[in-house]
Amino acid sequence: MMWWLLMQSAQANTFMPPAATDIAERVNSLYGFLLWASFISCVLVIGGFIYFAFKYKRRSENDKTAYISHNNFLEFLWSFVPFLIFMAVFVWGWAIYSQMRTFPEDALEVHVQAQKWSWSFEYKNGRKSSGELLIPVNTPIKLVMTSSDVLHSFYVPAFRAKQDVVPGRYTALWFKPKYKGEYQIFCTEYCGEQHSGMLAKLKVVSREEFDDWLANDPYKGLAMEEVGQKIYTARCAICHHTNDQKLVGPGFGGLFGREETLQGGEKVMVDENYLRESIMNPNAKIVAGYPSGQMPTFAGQLSEQEITGVIEYIKTLK
Amino acid sequence: MSTANTTEYHHHTAHHFDSADAEYRASKLGLWVFLMTEILMFGGLFVGYIIYHQKMPETFAAGSKFLDWKLGSLNTVILIFSSLTMALSIYYAQIGKKAMVLYNLYITFFCGVGFMVVKSIEYSHKIHDGLLPGSLFHHAAEAGSAGVAHLPIYFSFYFVMTGLHGSHVLVGMGLIAWLIVRAHKGHFGPQYYTPLECVGLFWHLVDLIWIYLFPLLYLVG
Amino acid sequence: MSSAPGVNYLNEKSGLWSWLTTLDHKRIGIMYMISVLSFFAIGGAFAMLIRWELFGAGKNIVDAATYNQFMTFHGAIMTFMVIIPGVPAFLGNFFLPLMIGAKDVAFPRVNLLSWYCLMVGAAISFWSLFYHGADTGWTFYTPYSIQTDNGTTWLVAGAFVMGFSSILTGLNFIVTVHKLRAPGMTFFRMPLFIWGLYSTAVIQVLATPVLGITLLLLIAERTMNIGIFDPAMGGDPVLFQHFFWFYSHPAVYIMILPAMGIISELITCYSKKTIFGYRAIAWSSIGIAAVSFFVWGHHMFVSGQSEVAGIVFSFLTMLVGVPTAIKTFNWVATLYKGSIEFSAPMLFALGFIFLFTIGGVTGIMLAVTAVDVHFHDTYFVVAHFHYVMVGGTLMAITGGIYHWLPKMFGKMYNEGVARFSFVLIFIGFNVTFFPQFVLGAMGMPRRYYDYLPAFEPLNKVSSLGAWTIGVGFLFALYVVVDCILRGKKAPDNPWGAKTLEWQTSSPPPHENFTTQPVVTGGPYEYR
């Protein structure tokens, strides 16, 4: 029986993704204890009432029942014992929570910018990346986060780490990954149509690999449209197909050189200037049939090289 | 239960109450509970005001300078006076002086009118100057004065708080008008004055809320 | 005033107009029943569609924008139109006066007004559908709710009006309980359902106005852009969450406290035994209501509120666990040496204890700050609150409806089908929501239109379970309709219950009792 319980509790722990930080391991132990305690109380309550229900099943309509109004000792017991358990897990949770909220002095800071519906990251030296957060292993990382439109929430299950990202202010989060590998980043605060698609990867690599990556120009040796394709995959693909199908916004296939009708009835030719304006100031000219206000601006987020890259990439999509 | 006199109005106790007194006390309890909900509703706004006042004290100091404390004081006096006449009307109902009940109700009602007139003078000034809530704000505030950055939020609070309060004054005036109609029909006397008492309590609450609003918006800088 | 034999509240007057203008709390209760059950059907249909869309990864039936509307309307309908009015305004309206020996609630006209508020509010909410619906989720978090370009304003306005319905019902119940109890009906002789309703009424009256002002500000935000919750204008979006949860956490207890009251009635009646620890259960209702006002921040551990706030709210949330535990243990102890009949209402009551216990212990897990950081806004939370709201409240409502059908309509229901509906609902429920605990532990966030392939198998199971629940509730609906149309005549007290509502005829006459009842003992004197 005990063995079976142990196995159950061990397996239950594996429902969570494997813990990849020390804090995540501590959360796991607390969660394991909670599962155990919960399981035992469920067995007591549920087992208890099922046992009573069958033992004292009605025999006849004229059954006489015991008149037991209360029992102070028992009632004290089953309020005080749960109270003690609650206090224990409260203090335990508090201890881990303060570790989560106490930021190490020597942490490597990365700025996180959330917007509908992508994540982008900027390092101290100005190196930017989007859709993928690359960090060195065994180093405390502090994320300083803000949003340019609505609430988002940065969540890495393997680190048991989560923090809402709020427009107009900075929130922060830290973790220290123990293992190299690739982890999933989710957005866990509802943020509109493509909320469930607002994903990113977190890559933990060796220190050398990280330093190397940080120092290098990410687009070295790439053609303009290849730069654009990279940006497309990280930032645009959530709302725009590469064919001519509508997703949230229009598909890019065959877009360049087409004449579109705007909401006001005006016509516009999709050329480099229109594309550029649509990236920097998306609500200026909305094509009829699309809602305004859906697309966030990318002004200040993409470099000149990247904007040109995207435009060149769109030109290649027929 | 005696039959109603043809000249004298006689209030019928609702069927589920044992006595007129039970009904009176139930109505009063119900009204107190209702007033509690009003206090909590305005309480939410007051909490919001306090939080923002703390966040941007300069804005609130700058904002309150745009309000005319003289008009605000005038309105305060009007409302406090109307609370007195409201209370008097109940008193006269209890001692059976029906003419005085009406007289005091009319005064209370016109105090309400006076309050709304002053309020609309203030509002039209604000509208004229573009001192409006949120994105409607278009006042050309003199450059360089501290806190002007968030002035629209100050005026959001000003308009939401005084607007909600003003709508309560209007509702109160409607209720007093209804009381006046009933008082003309001679419905109120020492035996039955529950509606007077209940509307009176409501009117006092509206007055009380203004007594908090006035210093918070006009005086606290 | 005594009425002729055979005349009761149902047949005393006839015609639609006599119903729409009635001041009889029983008729108003029945009107609430019809509205709430209709809203439940609509909200349930949205649930079925949600699970259909989530049956497989990627697109199944609708696009993401439509799914978000389903999710929003499911949540808004189920909270504002079903669970909040479900127990107090429907069963409470019908039985509160009967159970304390009163002829009606204190303010019958206000009572009717509250029903109209619900209907008008619901109509306004549904009006949003003509403006491309709403896609904010039922929580209306700013600034998304300020920016989204659709009928959200209507949905918010509808919820605002429905708030009045809730306030008026609560107000009425407080005054009725204080002023209209029958002679001899002291506070500690009141049935525990009344204690539940009374605590609920206190919450309704104290918390709902804050929701009212919050929604009003949100409407102003959307129409005039007043900026208080809008970061673009210097406002604070997190303040909205504080305001919202200051109401909406107590609202959770509006949903569960009266349901707990129903369970106390069912457990005693079908085990023919007095309740174990009456005073502890009664006081625990008040205790839960009191503490419920100070725990809202546990919805916001990762919202950006301070660490100290998180810890304080975690502590206070633990305190709610204690009175809840007392209730559960006392119900189980009541069964000891009882005479337990496995009738359909009792099955629902036992099912309630089963599911509520799981909902309760997972609630404690979520109250632990460090663990909640992982679980917040994942399917673990979805599973937890469905265990409490559906496994708790809806099980109690269904059990309560079966239990009181003979009193409400004077007819007996089909016991076999009723038990079968329990089996389907109970099994379907666990199949739906237990996998969601696992999904949450794995890290699947809630309000997701699409998910990673790793989450697919459990989502399939969950959807199959959901459809089982759906079928189960169809059977339950059949039981109710069949009972009303074709049920055999019910005796006045078919279950041998001791509370006052069973001491009058079935269905009760217009003024509830032909002679004023006088109370001489507690509510559960099974000796």
Strand proportion of chain B: under 5%
Number of domains of chain B: 1
Shape of chain A: elongated
Can you give the helix content of chain B as a percent range? over 70%
- For the termini of chain B, the CA-CA separation is 61 Å
CATH topology of the largest domain in chain A: the name is: Immunoglobulin-like
Radius of gyration of chain A: 28 Å
The CATH topology of chain B is given as: Four Helix Bundle (Hemerythrin (Met), subunit A)
Quaternary status of these chains? heterotrimer
Question: What is the radius of gyration of chain B?
Answer: 21 Å
CATH architecture group name of the largest domain in chain A: Sandwich
| Major beta sheet, strand line-up of chain A | 3-2-1-5-8
Tell me roughly what share of residues is in helical segments of chain A: 25-40%
Search tags:
heterotrimer, A: 318 residues, alpha+beta, Cytochrome Bc1 Complex, Chain D, domain 2, 5-stranded mixed sheet, 20% strand, B: 221 residues, mainly alpha, 6 helices, 74% helix
Description:
- The complex is a heterotrimer of chains A (318), B (221) and C (527).
- Helices cover 38% and strands 20% of the residues of chain A.
- Chain A is α+β, with helices and mostly antiparallel strands.
- Chain A has a 5-stranded mixed β-sheet with strand order 3-2-1-5-8. In chain A, strands 4-10-9-6-7 form a 5-stranded mixed β-sheet, with helices on one face.
- In chain A, a hairpin with a 4-residue loop joins β2 and β3 (128-130).
- Helices cover 74% and strands 0% of the residues of chain B.
- In chain B, α1 runs parallel beside α6 (194-219) and α4 (98-129) packs antiparallel against α5 (151-184).
- Residues 1-6 of chain B have low confidence and may be disordered.
- In chain C, 67% of the residues lie in helices and 0% in strands.
- Chain C is built from 15 helices and no strands.
- Chain C has helices spanning 16-20, 25-53, 64-100, 108-127, 144-147, 152-179, 192-224, 237-271, 278-291, 307-335, 344-367, 369-375, 379-409, 415-442, 456-486.
- The radius of gyration of chain C is 22 Å and the shape is globular.
- The interface between A and C is large, with 85 and 92 residues.
